[in-house]
Amino acid sequence: MIDVKPLFQWVQSNGEAKAIQRVLIKSIIHIKRFNISLTAQTIEESASLEVPEELYSILLDEAEKVVGVKYSGDNQ
Predict the structure, then answer these.
(1) How far is CA 67 from CA 7, 36, 52, 64, in A?
(2) How many angstroms separate the CA atoms of 32 and 4, rounded?
(3) Does 74 reside within a domain?
(4) Would you call 56 exposed, middle or buried from its count of C-beta atoms within 10 A (0-12, 13-18, 19+)?
(5) Is the Cα torsion angle 21, 68, 12, 53 positive or negative in sign?
(6) For residue 25, what are the CA distances in angstroms to 6, 12, 73, 74?
(7) Which domain holds residue 57?
(8) Is residue 10 included in any domain, yes or no?
(9) pTM (2 decimals)?
(10) Which listed residue, of 7, 10, 26, 67, carries a Cα 20 to 30 Å from 75's Cα?
(11) SS3 for 3?
(12) Chain segment 4-36, per-residue pLDDT in tens
């Protein structure tokens, strides 16, 4: 399991206003496949969010596409 919160903090800091929602919409089929409830509100309100590594990889890929740059993992 990997904490996805830092990735979404990076998306929020580096993407457009609705970037988190765009990542979630593009990944919704995979999120549902893992039977996880993941919304912009839960991301905002949670201190951390653990997801399976496979789902994290999918979210990372979509986040990088939405933001337009590679995620370095340092939340900047």
Answers:
(1) 11, 23, 22, 5
(2) 16
(3) no
(4) middle
(5) positive
(6) 19, 15, 22, 24
(7) 2-67
(8) yes
(9) 0.90
(10) 26
(11) strand
(12) 999 999 999 999 989 999 999 999 999 999 999
